[in-house]
Every structure is written in C-alpha cells, then in structure tokens.
Amino acid sequence: MIDFLKHALGGQNQFASGGLLLMVIGGIAAYLRAIPQKVWYWLESQFSMMITVKDEDMAFRWVKEWMLDQKFLKRVRRVDLDTTLRGAELAMVPAPGRHWFWHAGRPFWVWFYRSDQSQLYSRRTESLTFQTVGRDRQFLKKFVDDIVTCHRKKVSVVSYLYVYDDSSWSQVEAYCPRLLESVILRSGEKEQLVRDIEKFRTSRKRYRQLGVPYHRGYLLYGPPGTGKTSLVSALANRFGMSIYAVNLTEFNDRTLRSAINNVPEGSVILLEDIDCMKAGHRRAEKGDEPAKQPNGNVDKGNASAVLGVTLSGLLNVLDGFHAPENVLFVMTTNKVETLDPALLRPGRIDYKLYMGEAAKSQKAELYLRFFPEATESDAIDFAEAHFAETMAQFQGLLLALEQEEHGLQVVGAPQRMTADSHPEPALQEVS
To answer: Of the four listed, 343, 351, 414, 422, which is most buried by Cβ atoms within 10 Å?
Structure first.
C-alpha cells in the first residue's frame, strides 16, 4: 500500500497525484474531526442517564401533571395549551423541542417529541425523554418516585372517570363527580355503606394475615332510575378514588382481563348492568359450538370472543389469579334474580344494597334541598300529594315546580339526581 502511494504521488501526472493527495488528506481530516464527536458520545453514554415515556403509557399524563407543579415551568418560553390535565382550566406545558431545568441539584434536559401525522390513518404519537448527569440509577428511581408521589396526591383528592378505549383506559374529560350529600338514601344506609368502605381501606394488613385477597365487592340492585350510578360516583368522590367503568357487552374474556390488569390500586371498578352481558348467565359448556371464520373454517381459539364475557371469565377477574388488589368492585343490575348464584357468594359480592321505590322520608329530604325555606311539614305534605316511583321521577317534579316559580318554561326531561334504597343486610365482613 505504501509503495502504491509513493508511486501514485510521485508519478508524471501531477493533476492525478495532487487530486489523490487531496483525497487522502481530506479522508484523514474527516476521520480526525469525527473522533471528538465519538469521544463525546462515549463520555455522554458513560456519565449520563436517560429515561423515556410514551403517550400510550398512563405515566405520560403523570409526568405532565408533575411538570405543572415545578418552578422551572414558569421560565419556559415555548409552551402548549393543554385541557386534558385540569379540565376546563387551561394548563401550559412545554412545547415539542428541547428544554432544560434543574431538579434535586442536577441539570436535566427533556426532549418533547411529537410526530407530524403526515401519513393518512397514522396516529399522532408523543414522547418525553429526560436526561441527566450521573451513573447511579437510584437517583433516577428517586426522580420517578417523585412523579408517582405527585400523581397519588392528586388522585387521592380528586375522582376521575375512565373508560376503556380499544387497548387502554382514557379519561372522560366532561365527568363531574357527585357529592355524597346530594345522594339521599333511607335512614342509616349511606352511613353504613361509608363505614364499610372505611373499614376495608384500613384492613389491608388484616387481609394479608388471613391470606384473603384484598378487594371488596358491592352489588347495587333495583329498578332503573333509583340512582345506582350516582351513588357510585358520590362514594368514589368521597374517598378520592377514580372510577374505571366497564361495559361487559363490549368485552370478551381476554380483553376484560387485559383491561382489569391495567387498573391501578385504590380505584373503583364499576361493572354496570351485569345482567346484560352476552354470556353472563352461564359458564362456557363443552358442547358450545366453536366460532367460524369468514371462510367457513372453525376457529376454536376465538370461541370466547364470539361468546363475549363468560361467567367463568368474569369470576376470574373478581377473585381469580387475575383479580387486582386494593380495589372496590361495584356491580349494578336491574334484575338480580337473573344472576348466577356463583357470582353472588361472599368474596365476589360482599355487600348488597337494594335501591327501590322512593320513600316518603327521602322525598321530603329532597324537597327541602330544593326549597330550604320550606318547613318539614310542607315537605311531607308535598311528598304525600305527588306520586313518584323513583327519586329521579320526584326530582323531575321538583325541577318543574322550581322552574315554574321562576317563570321558566320546562323543556325536556330533567336529570336524575338521587338514589333510593330498601334495607338489605350486608353479607358477613372479613374481621
């Protein structure tokens, strides 16, 4: 190789020799220029740490919530407006690009990436990548713990509503939780229910000692319009627990298991109208005909998808290997008599509450909430004079009366407001 270069550079053709010399020198210079960059990348990889979170993960929202509480956000000049974090209140979060800040005495760089969604049918993706100096992963873990702690503080005082969308839970932005004071039950029922939940939430150690799965099931049953869903909303708001609503008609055993596995601790899993699920009235039998594909071939593995949620699939997420811990399962139904006895046993449903026709005392209490200047005698007289099968119907009467008094025209049906119940003994608790 050396002889070749001597011959080429010492040849008769000076132009060729000069060009070759320039090419060799340029190659060496380009290589030398790349050395500092490579050395820098190596040093950066050895003495810095990075962590990335994508928008498909629930932690992505947690990180943005954490940013709102940090002082460095005040000096960021490129921001986006976000209404997914504080409802109707606008929040300013860093815009796509690179930003830096100090946290716990160390510099941090954060890259906010957002795809341009230029391709048709492509979903816009976002991600946040944090980088800081150091090699000890314990510091990175402490950084993550700070984000988790911030999130738990928020969810412990605010109740959110989530629904399952395709493959993940998404928050319902328009949801407004009920106040427990606005839900009117028969005397003592609401207080007993609150005490039961309070006892459960302070009994984790006792459950562990007994080897009992740490979750509790509640069944609210009765005719439509008695406020079962309103009561769930009010209880979740009272204890700062978010609601994860499940419509069993939209799931099969596999998707239900996947959804329940992604519910965090300290949540309420609401299973509405469990008497309406596609296959909830029985377990899958050996004689069930396997599902067929469009081409006519039998697809044995897809039988559960056609059946919907089977009873065995539902029981598995309630108290099987896939049952989450530290959650409240709340089930509602209009037809309790159609439910399988296996679903009603303790461990799956531990507390039952019948919510039926509106009692006179309930209607009188609701009347006084609408017209606090009225006397208790006036409230009782109005309740006796106006028939209403449910509290929702009685609320409609009060709304119409109030609007008439203010000279407003009543348009459409009024909203449901309160719940009604009939005494039903609770199943035995774990002591």
So the answer is: 351
How far is CA 228 from its chain centroid? 21
Provide DSSP, 151-170: HHHHHTT---EEEEETTEEE
* Residue listed under structure tokens 């690179």: 98
E-only strand ranges, 191-234: 215-221
Segment 345-400, tens digit of pLDDT: 888 999 999 988 777 888 888 888 888 888 888 888 888 787 777 777 788 888 88
Strand 126-133 relative to strand 215-221: parallel, antiparallel, unpaired?
unpaired
What's the whole-model pTM score? 0.64
Percent of the chain with pLDDT over 90: 19
Question: CA dihedral defined by 194, 196, 198, 202, rounded to 10 degrees?
Answer: 180
pLDDT, residue 17, reads 57
Judged on CB neighbours under 10 Å (0-12, 13-18, 19+), 132 is buried
**pLDDT higher than 80, residue 208:** yes
The answer to whether the beta carbons of residues 226 and 216 sit under 8 Å apart is no
Pairing of strands 97-103, 106-114: antiparallel
Strands 168-171 and 327-333: unpaired
Every domain of the chain and the residues it spans: 48-155, 360-405
Distance (Å, rounded) from C-alpha 51 to C-alpha 65?
17
Q: How far are the Cα atoms of 123, 167, 175, 202, 252 from residue 162, in angstroms, in the given order?
A: 21, 13, 9, 25, 19
Give the residue-averaged pLDDT of 240-260.
Answer: 90
* Per-residue pLDDT, 407: 56
Residue 207, both tokens? 């459950």
E strand segments, 232-324: 243-247, 267-272, 291-292, 298-299
